[in-house]
């Protein structure tokens, strides 16, 4: 990024153009102007939050305790291949046959 904007934390047109180039995104002049303003606002707001002193508040990695919400991994009865294919409208070589969706020739 351009040195002057990186040191000051300021988002400039050059900064946005540089980032767009790194991301290989083509931006119009209007989009660059809009993003310069919006990103500048975001950086200023982050700076304000960073100024708040919070010596008595411990840092958190996640605001809500995480827990496993999936069902237990229990072996259960499964369908045989014949049972699974019994309700299929079409099957081929022991597999479900579906229509091509990407225009590929069979």
Q: Explain this structure to me?
A:
This protein has a domain at 3-51: Histone, subunit A, CATH 1.10.20. The protein has helices at 3-8, 13-22, 29-51, 81-85, and strands at 91-92, 95-96. With 106 residues, the chain is mainly alpha-helical. Strands 1-2 form a two-stranded antiparallel sheet.
Summarize the structure.
42% of the residues lie in helices and 4% in strands.
Per-chain topology:
Elements (H helix, E strand, L loop, with lengths): L2 H6 L4 H10 L6 H23 L29 H5 L5 E2 L2 E2 L10
Helix pairs in contact: 2-3
Give the strand content: under 5%
Parts with pLDDT < 50 across at least 5 consecutive residues: none
The span between the termini is 50 Å
Q: What is the CATH architecture term of one domain?
A: Orthogonal Bundle
Mean pLDDT: 86
Number of helical stretches of at least 4 residues: 4
The number of strands is: 2
Instruction: Name the CATH class of one domain.
Output: Mainly Alpha
With strands numbered from the N-terminus, the spatial order across the biggest sheet is 1-2
Helices and strands, in order, run as HHHHEE
The major β-sheet equals: 2 strands, antiparallel
Overall, the morphology is flat
Helix content: 40-55%
Determine the structural class based on helices, strands and strand pairing.
Answer: mainly alpha
Question: Taking Cα atoms only, what radius of gyration do you get, to the nearest Å?
Answer: 27 Å
Q: What's the multimeric state?
A: single chain
CATH topology of one domain: Histone, subunit A
């Amino acid at each position: 990024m351009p040195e002057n904007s990186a040191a000051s934390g300021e988002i400039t047109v050059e900064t946005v153009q540089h980032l767009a180039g790194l991301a290989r995104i083509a931006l119009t002049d209007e989009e660059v102007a809009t993003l310069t303003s919006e990103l500048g606002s975001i950086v200023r707001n982050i700076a304000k939050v960073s100024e708040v002193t919070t010596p008595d508040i411990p840092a958190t990695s996640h605001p809500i305790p995480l827990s496993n919400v999936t069902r237990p991994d229990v072996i259960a009865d499964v369908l045989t291949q014949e049972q699974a294919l019994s309700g299929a409208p079409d099957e081929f070589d022991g597999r479900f046959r579906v229509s091509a969706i990407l225009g590929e020739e069979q």
